Amino acid sequence: MEFDFNLPGLGKPQSSRPKRVAEAIKNELSLLLLRQVADPRLSGVSFSQVVVAPDLKQAKVYFVLSAGGDPKEATKALKKARGFFRSHLARAINLRYTPNLVFYYDSVHEEMDRIDELLHDIAEERKEDEGRD
Question: pTM of the predicted model, to two decimals?
Answer without folding.
Answer: 0.72
